[in-house]
């Protein structure tokens, strides 16, 4: 039986966390770059928030990525 696909919210969370840490920046610094509060970024990275497209756009811009890079599963 095929495994259940990972929810997109979790994929985005993992990708944001991975990309942020690969840049060596804290959640606080990343939040400032995005224009959001650190606790909101933390909630996104824990897949606790269902973000809007405009938030996804801000996250990608702060990471200097194309939006689609945050939506692709990297296993």
TrEMBL record:
<dbReference type="GO" id="GO:0005829">
    <property type="term" value="C:cytosol"/>
</dbReference>
<keyword id="KW-0804">Transcription</keyword>
<keyword id="KW-0238">DNA-binding</keyword>
<dbReference type="InterPro" id="IPR001387">
    <property type="entry name" value="Cro/C1-type_HTH"/>
</dbReference>
<dbReference type="InterPro" id="IPR050807">
    <property type="entry name" value="TransReg_Diox_bact_type"/>
</dbReference>
<dbReference type="GO" id="GO:0003700">
    <property type="term" value="F:DNA-binding transcription factor activity"/>
</dbReference>
<protein>
    <submittedName>
        <fullName>XRE family transcriptional regulator</fullName>
    </submittedName>
</protein>
<dbReference type="Pfam" id="PF01381">
    <property type="entry name" value="HTH_3"/>
</dbReference>
<dbReference type="GO" id="GO:0003677">
    <property type="term" value="F:DNA binding"/>
</dbReference>
<feature type="domain" description="HTH cro/C1-type">
    <location>
        <begin position="16"/>
        <end position="70"/>
    </location>
</feature>
<dbReference type="InterPro" id="IPR010982">
    <property type="entry name" value="Lambda_DNA-bd_dom_sf"/>
</dbReference>
<keyword id="KW-0805">Transcription regulation</keyword>
């Amino acid at each position: 039986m095929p495994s259940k696909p990972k929810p997109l919210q979790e994929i985005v969370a993992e990708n944001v966390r991975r990309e942020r840490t690969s840049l060596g920046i804290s959640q606080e610094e990343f939040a400032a770059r995005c224009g959001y509060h650190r606790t909101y970024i933390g909630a996104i990275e824990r897949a606790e928030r269902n973000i809007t497209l405009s938030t996804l756009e801000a996250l990608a811009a702060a990471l200097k990525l194309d939006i689609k890079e945050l939506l692709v599963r990297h296993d």
